[in-house]
């Protein structure tokens, strides 16, 4: 399998649905047809999931990537030996689980920076568990940025026609408004443009959201559009980007979902996440649980490739066998596409 990229996949929080969706994703032959996947985390947790759910798979514990077999049905696990299984319970927030989750992220980054793997995919982590373990980060994006020494980065969400990048993410709404600045908007336009190309997107038209209702309505409902967003749009056009805006957010995402834009710029976390999850998440009102969760989170601007599921840890269903692996499969597929593009671009 000389041309297939090696994809390192973290377990996420071991007490979450992360280990389950990772195993379930690797029980699809199509994953092995397109790449060489290996899990990074604690083998005892993956083994517990396989036994608990009676899954048709076995574990191959490795200490070096060169030991991986990449054989369907035999799941390679880069074992970090952080979890004491006798003291472990699915669905519980703990510092021990947070430490194990953080170490799996740290290791997969190290493997990618060393060139041992071609791309990284992350399972869901719990911010409280991570912080209880003494690692004070707002999320995966910030961990990756710090450990790779990256200053200019952004979160890009991908689901079918909707591709959303954010000016700011894990900050308060008050801070988010203050972070709407011309230079940052130009930065994420450039990151989004590059992301669309690397994902194979042919529609490179970018829609840029306003911050305020009706995109400020000529200053009646706020001045950020006139002072920061519109100047950024004009400069982006001068630089050759095909951009539209500022578009009122309640209109922008309706148009984007039908393919009017290759991608859109959201001004803050929930402005982009709410329409994105309305597109990709399906709630079963009878069973009171998600029946399908789709969507990929890509960190743009890093020296390595990082994709992720765009959903949480779902502790309430951890270890019960009902978690959907849809988003994990899509995250792996996106990592494969990005690694192929990067290889072509550097060859």
From TrEMBL:
Q: Name one Pfam family in it.
A: PdxA
Return the broad EC class. Answer: oxidoreductase
**InterPro entries in the record, alphabetically?**
PdxA_fam
For this entry, the protein name equals 4-hydroxythreonine-4-phosphate dehydrogenase PdxA
Under Gene3D superfamilies, the record lists: Isopropylmalate Dehydrogenase
Gene Ontology molecular function:
4-hydroxythreonine-4-phosphate dehydrogenase activity
Q: Which UniProt keywords apply?
A: Metal-binding, NAD, Oxidoreductase
Q: Does the keyword NAD apply?
A: yes
- The question of whether Oxidoreductase is a record keyword is answered with yes
EC code:
1.1.1.262
- Give the top-rank taxon of the lineage listed in the UniProt record for this protein: Bacteria
Q: Which residues form a coiled coil?
A: none
């Amino acid at each position: 399998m000389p041309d297939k990229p090696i994809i390192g996949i973290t377990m996420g929080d071991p007490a979450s649905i992360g280990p389950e969706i990772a195993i379930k994703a690797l029980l699809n032959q199509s994953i092995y047809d397109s790449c060489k996947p290996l899990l990074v985390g604690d083998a005892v947790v993956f083994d517990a999931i396989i036994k608990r759910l009676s899954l048709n798979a076995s574990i191959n514990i490795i200490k070096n990537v060169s030991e991986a077999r990449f054989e369907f049905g035999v799941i390679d696990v880069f074992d970090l030996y952080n979890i004491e299984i006798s003291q472990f319970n699915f669905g519980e927030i703990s510092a021990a689980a947070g430490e194990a989750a953080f170490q799996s992220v740290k290791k997969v980054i190290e493997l990618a920076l060393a060139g041992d793997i071609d791309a990284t995919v992350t399972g869901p982590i719990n911010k409280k568990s991570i912080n209880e373990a003494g690692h004070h980060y707002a999320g995966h994006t910030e961990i990756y940025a710090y450990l790779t020494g990256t200053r200019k980065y952004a979160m890009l969400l991908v689901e079918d026609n909707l591709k959303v990048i954010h000016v700011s993410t894990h900050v308060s709404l008050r801070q988010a408004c203050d972070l709407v600045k011309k230079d940052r908007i130009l930065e994420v336009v450039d990151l989004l443009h590059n992301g669309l190309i690397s994902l194979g997107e042919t529609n490179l038209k970018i829609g840029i959201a306003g911050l305020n209702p009706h995109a400020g309505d000529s200053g009646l409902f706020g001045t950020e559009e006139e002072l920061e967003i519109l100047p950024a749009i004009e400069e982006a056009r001068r630089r050759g980007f095909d951009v539209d805006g500022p578009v009122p957010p309640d209109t922008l995402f309706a148009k984007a979902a039908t393919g009017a834009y290759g991608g859109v710029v959201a001004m803050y976390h929930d402005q982009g996440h709410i329409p994105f999850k309305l597109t990709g998440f399906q709630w079963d009102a009878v069973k009171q649980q998600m029946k399908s969760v789709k969507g990929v989170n890509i960190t743009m601007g890093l020296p390595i490739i990082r994709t992720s599921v765009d959903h949480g840890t779902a502790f309430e269903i951890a270890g019960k066998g009902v978690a959907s692996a849809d988003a994990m499969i899509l995250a792996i597929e996106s990592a494969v596409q990005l690694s192929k593009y990067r290889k072509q671009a550097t060859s």
